[in-house]
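hiii so um. not sure if this is the right channel but i have a protein structure encoded as tokens and i wanna go backwards to a sequence. like what aa goes where. can anyone help
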């Protein structure tokens, strides 16, 4: 149970909008160092740092493919994600993104799982739904709902507000079959690098988090580079 709590949906920064609509086919990459790998409010590195990175291809039709990886502290200490999808516009102001994510834990294939997602966005506001028919480590069906709002503060500063609700078919955290997570993050681009400072928390108690502090509030600093 403690291991599962640490591993909960270890997907690394994957919430559904992986690729912006492209005007022409293009390849891109990214690399980052973070003080704590947080996914859906829960640390995947037991409060320690992580190195992360990935590659993306986006076509002029809106179709995209990519892969992303991160160091973790379970399942042989690495996670590799593969994803693909399609982005487009419903109106001049409403965009959509639909796709899939496959979570791969080399050496622990029984923990691998597949998830599908859909996103609608309007200006700085976006909402998403993720669904897995057989969640991490065979824990059954799961849904994840999000609501985000981003502000452009000028001078390459940005502020983002996030709320997420994770729901399961069965009790996963002690007596809990669902939980809420939220964060607020400030970002800044400078000198070709991207910096972010995030405060994150969940409504899970330490007891329901397997006795660990992985679900507790924390502040995370990340520095990244687009390639």
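sure thing!! here u go:
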């Amino acid at each position: 149970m403690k291991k599962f709590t640490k591993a909960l949906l270890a997907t690394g920064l994957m919430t559904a909008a992986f690729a912006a609509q492209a005007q022409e086919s293009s390849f891109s990459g990214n690399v980052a160092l973070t003080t704590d790998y947080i996914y859906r409010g829960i640390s995947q590195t037991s409060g320690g740092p992580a190195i992360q990175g990935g590659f993306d291809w986006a076509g002029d039709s809106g179709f995209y493919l990519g892969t992303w990886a991160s160091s973790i502290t379970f399942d042989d200490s690495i996670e590799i994600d593969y994803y693909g999808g399609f982005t487009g516009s419903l109106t001049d102001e409403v965009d959509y993104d639909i796709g899939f994510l496959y979570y791969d834990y080399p050496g622990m294939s029984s923990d691998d799982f597949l998830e599908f997602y859909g996103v609608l966005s309007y200006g700085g506001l976006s909402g998403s739904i993720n669904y897995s028919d057989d969640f991490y480590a065979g824990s059954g069906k799961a849904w994840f709902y999000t609501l985000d709002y981003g502000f452009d503060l000028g001078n390459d500063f940005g502020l983002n507000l996030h709320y997420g609700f994770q729901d399961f078919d069965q009790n996963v955290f002690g007596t809990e079959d669902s939980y809420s997570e939220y964060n607020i993050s400030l970002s800044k681009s400078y000198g070709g690098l991207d910096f972010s400072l995030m405060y994150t928390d969940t409504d899970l108690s330490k007891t329901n988090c397997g006795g660990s502090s992985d679900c507790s509030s924390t502040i995370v600093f990340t520095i990244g580079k687009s390639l």
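oh and The chain has one domain: 2-226.
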